[in-house]
Amino acid sequence: MNIRDSRPGDLVHIEAIYTHHVLTGTASFEEVPPSLEELARRRDDVLARGMPYVVAEMDGRVIGYAYAGPYRLRTAYRYSVEDSIYLAPDCMGRGAGRALLLAVIDRCAMAGCRQMIAVIGDSGNAPSIGLHRSLGFEPAGLLKAVGFKFGRWVDSVLMQRPLGNGDASSPAEHR
Ligand SMILES: CC(C)(COP(=O)(O)OP(=O)(O)OC[C@H]1O[C@@H](n2cnc3c(N)ncnc32)[C@H](O)[C@@H]1OP(=O)(O)O)[C@@H](O)C(=O)NCCC(=O)NCCS
Q1: Of 2, 17, 130, 173, which is most buried, counting CB atoms within 10 Å of its CB?
Q2: CA 171 → CA 29, 105, 115, distances in Å?
Q3: Which CATH class is domain 2-162?
Q4: What is the pLDDT of residues 85-130, one digit of tens each?
């Protein structure tokens, strides 16, 4: 398996993976799959902010992707990022999620980010909670029943891990 920076040509595969999860799962609170153009716009926005957008490739096939974007847009949040990660349904549980998230963590730390937050759709999302826990994320809160999808209320699980020096020092460069 190979983890690499994404390319525009990967977006058709990313669209297929994300469409599956939007239509069948509660990890994403989107209910209508975004178009290819919208996914391209979102990727451009991530890259323009200097944040990573990576894919996992196996035997030449894109089997998953992950990226980080701003946690929230107000300026004092600028050293905090939120991760997103999705795998093709036939490729889960084989270490690809771990490799993708590690790559995003490393790149965000190198870029000077200090905190990473996971906003996990559904308190029953054992794979995502387990993945984040295994990479040093700690529980940071539970927002109960903030989503309603497939006819039921859905929680958001918040998890957080420091990057680099975390809050042990001020950022080297103020941006
Ligand atoms: C969540 C997801 C990205 C995890 O990726 P994955 O490739 O299946 O996970 P990995 O095989 O890399 O496992 C990584 C860790 O997660 C844990 N994990 C994986 N599946 C798990 C499960 N079903 N239950 C509990 N823990 C699990 C493993 O313990 C593993 O830890 P370890 O390496 O210390 O043993 C993937 O399952 C997925 O795409 N799920 C649907 C979409 C989603 O929920 N995305 C997250 C949005 S916040």
Answers
A1: 17
A2: 33, 17, 12
A3: alpha beta
A4: 999 999 999 999 999 999 999 999 999 999 999 999 999 999 999 9
